[in-house]
Amino acid sequence: GAEDKMTSGDVLSNRKMFYLLKTAFPNVQINTEERVDAADQEVIVWDRKVPEDILKEIGTPKEVPAESVTVWIDPLDATQEYTEDLRKYVTTMVCVAVNGKPVLGVIHKPFSEYTAWAMVDGGSNVRARASYNEKTPRIVVSRSHSGMVKQVALQTFGNQTTIIPAGGAGYKVLALLDVPDKSQEKADLYIHVTYIKKWDICAGNAILKALGGHMTTLNGEEISYTGSDGIEGGLLASIRMNHQALVRKLPDLEKTGHK
User: Fold this and answer.
1) Catalytic (active site) residue 10
2) Any binding-site annotation on 37?
3) Is 121 within any annotated ligand binding site?
4) Where in the cell is it found (predicted)?
5) Distance CA 222, CA 242 (A)
6) 85 has catalytic annotation
7) What is the Cα–Cα distance from 44 to 24, expressed in whole angstroms?
8) Using CA atoms, how far apart are residues 71 and 181, in angstroms rounded to an integer?
9) Looking at the predicted structure, is the pLDDT value of residue 57 above 50?
10) How far is 87 from 84, CA to CA, in rounded Å?
11) What's this model's pTM, rounded to 2 decimal places?
12) Among the CATH numbers 3.30.70.600, 3.30.465.10, 3.40.50.2300, 3.30.540.10, which is that of 8-127?
């Protein structure tokens, strides 16, 4: 249906990603956006070789109990935009959370073959930009819910604020970073005011956290990646800014968030 589109792209991507991880790590909890049918099952074997450029960044491996790990997969983020052939917004994402905390995030842009990854206390291949504008920020928001965000953002930061409507949570997080992909727009803040699923945001949360940034609810609460599939409290993502000061500046967004 229109509210929750699914394409053959979602299904095929999900099949590959889910079974690769399930075969490699059978005891780990994997939460994915798409349903996995037994009829779809395929064995995809990983040789467990980690590319040299990643090994160099990670340093000492950490071992954790399998039951403390939850993996969140979004096999095709920005499905709406994918159906409209707006390919720059489309990403595939994987996130590893340990005891509910996001630790490792990967955001891949299949149509420009760009991959960003970061691990908390373990390195990354992406970095923050040199500077951000806190006074009159460029704010990236959902294409489909930009109206109410725009109103409150302009109220909070003034009329000089630029609102960038965009598809896909992965794309929006990359907008805050120093990304070489030329199709990627740049923003200073990412704000979302309605319900959002955890597989949409976990990878971006892990990457921001690894780089010293923040992703919280609009009330400034950390997001736990266990239990339910989604969060009600909206979303604020920033890097190299005073995140709690931003939270205090946005008291009205929370009230708007549940409309």
Assistant:
1) yes
2) no
3) no
4) Golgi apparatus, trans-Golgi network membrane
5) 15
6) no
7) 8
8) 26
9) yes
10) 8
11) 0.94
12) 3.30.540.10
